[in-house]
Structure formats: structure tokens, C-alpha cells
Specification:
2 copies of one chain form a homodimer. With 418 residues, the first copy, chain A, is α/β, with parallel strands linked by helices. Helices cover 41% and strands 17% of the residues of chain A. The longest helix of chain A is centred in the C-terminal third of the chain and has 20 residues. The two termini of chain A are 38 Å apart.
């Protein structure tokens, strides 16, 4: 971390006081710290109290230290670590020293067998809108400081592996177009279009027309401006509306980074929209953050960053969205490590922009967002989050690619201008 | 069809009597035929009675005709078409005229919305053995007449599309090895090895050692002989045993064409075997006939051809086998049309071998098998059957391929000798 603003406001406790036996902490505090450490057994992480008392969760050399700067932070964390770690960190009552991502990855792997907490999710057209606004209407100028130039806020595809973020986002968009089988003249429905980069890319490079839905006013405004500037506003229509309002038929259905905000109770409605709008031989692509097994989102991320979000398993998507509508899976790919690399790039830019960020946003907000990026990178590295792309068509459609090799051809297979 | 033996023993009724109004059939027979035809509405298929009475299920030109040669066949078919079509055909009381596969494809597509019949499935180690013996112990010399030279009785991979069956089976084996991430020196567990072609291919071309399980005595005998002849018996061990008996650890788990015989109630046991035997960074590949949505196997196929078989959905496999064991999906591919082409090649060879076949097997047996091949080709064309390959690793393992492009490189990415 390059600045105090993002890394914490103070050096985190007296580093010389390494031995728990020499600690001045009360017996209760030490007992509680012991219980906390027990919950992270085998994680190469050290925990430190405000007075320098330290305990490690593993005999191996720690990748970093979690510092509780006061008793209140320790008590809250002990009661509900999933929620209170983020709360304490954002408030500056918990700090991290060392490898931020490593600490998270160690903690996630150590706790991967921990019992799930039951939390209910609620989604309606109304709450989706509020949820998306919570996250995306923070302001375009915030995201501009750490996303790529085209404001693509979804997993990139690093092909080649040393591609820049800008190159990797373009590679992802091309990859999505190929998986969706785009050909010039097709009509595409995009559900959840962010700042519109993919919709514009599809029109520009694959000669299609696009109707793109998004409930975030800020994003739609930005996307429309770009469409006008590029002269694509005749071929790409951005609608500030729920994707469920979509009418008409489309040769392709594309949704990149929306499904994780839809919530399982709305999967049948998503399936309805696809079944209702896809042409008989149309192709679809769902790109979403998912899980290896059903689990609620981290409580703090759900509360502070992505209200209402739920990363589903592949099976939940197949059974909730595709199967009931007679849709057939053609291809599923897990791009988990590409997302770790994507978030790494965002986090690096976020840290590099610390001075600009701190002049415009308050410290607690920035600490929360930095922690979210750190935690997301770690979650993709540790495998508690996945990134799935599912390509599909209607059951029994034989106008599908014979093999996948064409996805990896140097230029676009269909129109040659990718 | 080239011979009477396979296509039917008699010309099927007086072709001049095309008009139902001129029919001599009793009113009841005509009424029943009408009900039968109603069940296939929109299928471009004509139905004909023993006296020439005909009705069509669609106004469009029919691709072929189903001929009921006596009242008993019609009555049975009307009662339970799924089961009694095959029974009647095998017994020679139902015949087909025209495009055999086309008739099936039309019928499957027309009935794809028909209600499912509830049938229970039963699987234990004992019954699996009986089931496999039912199918595979028919005799190697039977399968030699219509499979490829290496006796690969699973979906081939036609890359390029005009590959011969022999080439396509080799391409499939190489593809499976790449998806399983084989490297020289690795130990591989193969569950359900058929006549051993894949196990031998893996050892020969990828320098691995293989333990391959199969409950069919005939197949294991053949496989062991081949291993000895090729000098691979030191590296490939064929075990006449249930795969659940496997012990030790393996760098890769491979199962091609077995899962559809395992039955959902045994998925947890399969998951156990994988979780118990796979190394921490090991890779797995499941290749199986599946469905877009849960549905029992056709009653006749289940009774006469594959007792105990059940083609699962991807979701059923993920939730039954992989998820509970902390395994992560890396890649799912649907090769449905490759299986249609594979079965087409088998059927063509089966028909070409009609003379040899009829000298060794009775007519009803051969008619049943021919119908099974016809029906399978149609089922893959119509999308009532799928062919899925699922590649997986343990959750959170980062030693996985960065991208899939290497699967399509001209030579094997790992050892260069594929």
C-alpha cells in the first residue's frame, strides 16, 4: 500500500511486543484472541492486540498481521468475523500489516469448511434497482480512477497472460461475442450493460444491433454519450430499465456480470425473458460470479458493497434459469484466475490513485472499497468465488458450432473483423 | 437399409391404399390409429395399418412411415408407445419405411413436451455388474462387426468434421487426455474402461500409468490381451472389478461413458471415490450421455439394451458427484452432434455387416440393436440426449490451465507426442 489513506491511519501497534506471554492485555482479551485464532487454524496469519499481544494461527511464517486497535473491534470480530472484519477495517479500528491479499486468501482457505450462516435474500424489480444504484451510482468519476478506459467492470480475459487490463477487457468482449455466435446483422439483447462497453463493442466489431438494459441512471447516461460520440446510437439503444421489460426477439442474449445481482428467486423470470425473446436458433451467454457450492455472499460485502448479491453455483443457474425453459448447455468455462488478475489490476490502479481518491471521498468509504478489492482478489485466488461463462441454445438446435477451436482463431471466425 | 434382415421381413402393406376413407380397417382400428397419430402431432410421419389405412401426423411431406402389421402391435403401441414401439419392431410386427432416423427424430421432437413416465431406477454394486454384463458380454465378436478397430464404444470427436470413425476416436482420446491434463509419469485412475482403448492410448501417447476398472469379464479379457500384445501390461492394469474398489492416489481421474450407467443414487459414492483417490492438485474428466432436463431413459432401451441406465443433467452430476466433495468445475462441453455422427458411423457399419450379423445372431436381436442405433442417432440429433464432458479439480487449486487454446494446438501441449 502506498499511502496512509488506504493502508490505515497509523502504524499498527508496537511491533517489538511479539510474545504473548509478555503481553499487558487482560486475561479475558487473551482468551478471546485465542478463540479468534482458533477459528482460523492453519492460516499463516498473525493476530495482534492494541497492546502488542500476538498469536499466530499457524506455526508457519505468517504472510501478514491482523491488528485489533481496540477492544471493541476484537469483541465485534469475535462475535461475527464475516461482518465485523470489514466494519472494523473501514472504521480504522482494525488494520492489516503485510500481504493484504495473502492474509485474506489464508483466512478464506482456513475457513472454507466453516458452517454457512443462513441469510435470506430478497429481490424484486424495485429492490434490484436500489441495489444497483447503491453500487453503481457512486459516481462515474469514482470508477474512472481505477477501471480501464472503457469502464468494463467485469472479469477480463488475459489472453495472452501478460496483456494489459485494457487489452484483456477487449479480449473478453471479443471472446463473449464469439461464444454468443454473433454475425453481422443480428439483433442482440444485453441484460445489465454497465457503462455500455460490450454493447458498443458488439455493434462496432460484429455489425450487430443491440438493446442494452441497465437500471443505473449514471451508467446509462455515460453509455448513451459514448454511443452518440462514436456514431453508434442508431445501432445501440441503452434503456434505463429492468431487463425484464425487454420486448421483441433477438438472435443472441448476452448478460455479463448481472446474474450475481439477480438472486435465485428471480431466475425463473430471467429464464422467461430468455425463452420469450430468443429466436428459435438464437444463442445465449451468461457470464457471472459463482460458487463451487451454494453459500451466501460474505455478510459485509452484502451489507456495504453489493446489497442483494448472490453468486450462484452452475447447477443453480442450470436448474433455475435454463432447464425449465428447454435451454441446452453448450459450453461452461471457469475463468476464476482471470478474475483474480482483473481485480489485482483494479486494486493496483486504486492504490495508485490514492491521492486523487482521498481528495474526493472520505476515508472510511475508501478503506471499505480497498478492502473489498483485496478480499475479492483473495476470494478468486482461494476458490471461494468462481467466474463462469455458460453458453446455451434452445434444446435440439443443431445450428451450433461444431467445435470450440474457432473461439481461439486469430481473427473472428464469423465476420473476420474482430 | 441394405437387407431384409435389418429393414424388415416383408414389404409393409399395400402401398396403393393411401386414402383412409377407402380403408377396410374396422372403425375401432381407425379410431385408435387416430389417437396414436394425435400423440405425434406435427411429426412429419405417416402411420399405416396392416390393410393399408394411412394417417399422417402433419400436413407436410412425411419422412417415412410406421407400419403396424397386425392389431396386436397397434393395441400395444397405443397403450405404451415408448416401450411397445421397440417390442413390436424387434418382433417384426412393426416396420418402418423411408428415413428410419428421420422418423425417430420427428417423433422425438413432436413428443418432447410429453409428460414423463415415472420409473424407478435401482443400482448397487451387484446390479451394475449384471447391467453391464447384459450389454457388454453379448460377445466381443458382435461389437467387432460395427465398432472401430480399437473397439471404442463412446462418443468420438470428429475433428476435422470429415474424419473417419477411427481418426475421430483417436482424436477423442487425445482430447480427453488434454482435458485431464496428463503429463508423463502421472498415475491415472480410469473408471469404466470398456475394451481398454483409452487406457492404452494414455499410457502409449502420454507416458502415464493407468489402473482401469471394468465389471465386464469379456471386455477386461480383451483389454488385457491388447496390453500384453503392445507391451503395455507393465503400465496399464485392467481390473475386473467395480471402480468403487479403487485404492491409492492418482494424478487424474478419467471416466468415459460410465456415468450414465451409475445411477443418481450412486453419485455420492462416485464422488467419494474421486475425493479419496485424487491427489491435491489432480484433475478429473467425466464424459457421459446426459440430458437437458431430468427424464427417465426410454423404457424400451432401459428394458432391452441398457438396464439401469440413466443419462443425467449437468446439474445432477454437479450436485450429486462434485459439489459435495469440494470439487470445482473447470470446463463443460456438449458434444451432442459428435455423438450423432458417431452413432451414424456405427449404424452404417452395422447395416453393412448385415450378412455376417445374420449368420450369427437371431433376427429379433438384430432388429432390436438396429433400432437402438437408429433411435440413438435420432435422439442426439433431436436433442433428447446430450454428450457432456466435465473437467474438474479440487476447489481452490490454482495449478489449472490458464486458457483452453492449448486444447486445440496441433500437438499435445504437455509432452509433444500426442
Amino acid at each position: 500500500m502506498s499511502t496512509n489513506l488506504v493502508s490505515g491511519t497509523s502504524p499498527a501497534g508496537p511491533v517489538e511486543a511479539r510474545d504473548a506471554t509478555r503481553s499487558r492485555a487482560a486475561a479475558f482479551d487473551r482468551w478471546l484472541l485465542g478463540r479468534v485464532v482458533l477459528g482460523f487454524q492453519s492460516a499463516r496469519v498473525r493476530f495482534r492486540l492494541w497492546d502488542g499481544t500476538e498469536m499466530s494461527a499457524s506455526d508457519a511464517a505468517p504472510v501478514g498481521t491482523v491488528v485489533f486497535k481496540d477492544r471493541r473491534a476484537l469483541l465485534a470480530f469475535a462475535r461475527d468475523p464475516e461482518l465485523q472484519f470489514g466494519e472494523g477495517y473501514a472504521a480504522g479500528r482494525i488494520d492489516l500489516i503485510g500481504d493484504f491479499v495473502g492474509i485474506h486468501e489464508e483466512a478464506i482457505r482456513a475457513r472454507s469448511g466453516a458452517p454457512e450462516r443462513g441469510r435470506r435474500l430478497r429481490h424484486s424489480s424495485g429492490s434490484s434497482r436500489e441495489d444497483a444504484r447503491h453500487h453503481y451510482d457512486v459516481g462515474n468519476d469514482f470508477y474512472e480512477l481505477w477501471l480501464d478506459r472503457e469502464m468494463v467492470y467485469t472479469c477480463a480475459y488475459f489472453d495472452p497472460p501478460d496483456a494489459t487490463l485494457e487489452e484483456a477487457q477487449r479480449a473478453k468482449m471479443e471472446y463473449v461475442c464469439r461464444k454468443a455466435g454473433l454475425r453481422p446483422g443480428m439483433a442482440v439483447l444485453e441484460a445489465g450493460c454497465g457503462w455500455g462497453a460490450l454493447a458498443l463493442f458488439m455493434a462496432r466489431h460484429h455489425g450487430v444491433t443491440v438493446k442494452a438494459y441497465n437500471v443505473s441512471k449514471e451508467q446509462v447516461r455515460w453509455a448513451r454519450r459514448r454511443a452518440r460520440e462514436e456514431g453508434l446510437d442508431g445501432r445501440v439503444e441503452f434503456l434505463e430499465a429492468d431487463y425484464r421489460a425487454a420486448q421483441g426477439t433477438f438472435d443472441a442474449f448476452v448478460s455479463v456480470g448481472m446474474l450475481e445481482h439477480v438472486g435465485p428467486e428471480n431466475y425463473p423470470a430471467l429464464g422467461d425473458v430468455i425463452a420469450r425473446t430468443l429466436t428459435p436458433t438464437g444463442r445465449g451467454l451468461l457470464h457471472f460470479i459463482g460458487r463451487d457450492r451454494p453459500e451466501p455472499l460474505n455478510a459485509w460485502i452484502e451489507k456495504r458493497i453489493f446489497p442483494g448479491a448472490y453468486p450462484p453455483t452452475v447447477a443453480e443457474v442450470l436448474e433455475g434459469v435454463l432447464q425449465p425453459k428447454g435451454l441446452s448447455v453448450l459450453d461452461v468455462e471457469n475463468l476464476r484466475l482471470h478474475y483474480a488478475k482483473t481485480v489485482h489490476a483494479w486494486r493496483t490502479r486504486f492504490e495508485a490513485a490514492a491521492a486523487k481518491l482521498s481528495s474526493r471521498f472520505d476515508e472510511s468509504f475508501l478503506r471499505a472499497w480497498h478492502l473489498y478489492l483485496v478480499g475479492a482478489e483473495a476470494a478468486f485466488l482461494a476458490g471461494s468465488l468462481q467466474l463462469f461463462q455458460i453458453a446455451f441454445a434452445r434444446s435440439g438446435v443443431n445450428d451450433v458450432p461444431w467445435a470450440r477451436a474457432a473461439l481461439y482463431a486469430p481473427s473472428a471466425p464469423a465476420d473476420g473483423n474482430g
